[in-house]
Amino acid sequence: MKIGIADTNFARYDMARAAIKELKRGCSAEIVRYTVPGVKDLPVAAKILIEERGCDLVMALGMPGPKPIDKTCAHEASTGLIMAQLMTNTHIIEVFIHEDEAESEKELATLAERRTREHAQNVIKLLYYPERLTREAGTGQREGFEDAGRVGY
Ligand SMILES: Cc1nc2c(=O)[nH]c(=O)nc-2n(C[C@H](O)[C@H](O)[C@H](O)CO)c1C
């Protein structure tokens, strides 16, 4: 199994480091890292990782800034990542930490570490233990924050 990590130097936290640590803790997949300037460059990086570097799945890690233009960039990047998934029939797990989700730099770092690690755990489940994801269906999982939990029970 080969997992691609596409990340950016725009991000204010080394999300790839967190992802790689968590992936290495939970599986033996080969990891290929590809760093680009910003989130809008992630779709082609992910596509290259899949088509040219043979990755079975890619994590796309990015940090949109707080300005309206950053939000637009993030939306465009998301659309590109969805297109790349459809073009390659391969999962690209988008892990975006919006800078304004946190109230301090410390909280931003904690959120980035936690969300990235929790999505890396999702990646391991998707590739190796899909039945575990099915068992979690309907349980209100949230990455980076407390889970929302079930309703109606
Ligand atoms: C305005 C802007 N905002 C962000 C952002 O919030 N987060 C991010 O990762 N990258 C941003 N970029 C850079 C673009 O994603 C891209 O790297 C450049 O337009 C070069 O293709 C831009 C240009």
TrEMBL record:
Coiled-coil residues are none
Q: Which keywords accompany this UniProt record?
A: Riboflavin biosynthesis, Transferase
Q: Does the keyword Transferase apply?
A: yes
InterPro entries xref list: LS/RS (IPR002180), LS/RS_sf (IPR036467), Ribfl_synth_arc (IPR006399)
Give the top-rank taxon of the lineage listed in the UniProt record for this protein. Archaea
Identify the gene encoding this protein. ribC
Its EC number(s): 2.5.1.9
Protein name per UniProt: Riboflavin synthase
- Pathway membership, UniProt: Cofactor biosynthesis; riboflavin biosynthesis; riboflavin from 2-hydroxy-3-oxobutyl phosphate and 5-amino-6-(D-ribitylamino)uracil: step 2/2
Protein family according to the UniProt entry: Belongs to the DMRL synthase family.
**What reaction does this catalyse?**
2 6,7-dimethyl-8-(1-D-ribityl)lumazine + H(+) = 5-amino-6-(D-ribitylamino)uracil + riboflavin
Q: Pfam families this protein is in?
A: DMRL_synthase (PF00885)
GO MF entries:
riboflavin synthase activity
Organism from which the protein derives? Candidatus Methanocrinis alkalitolerans
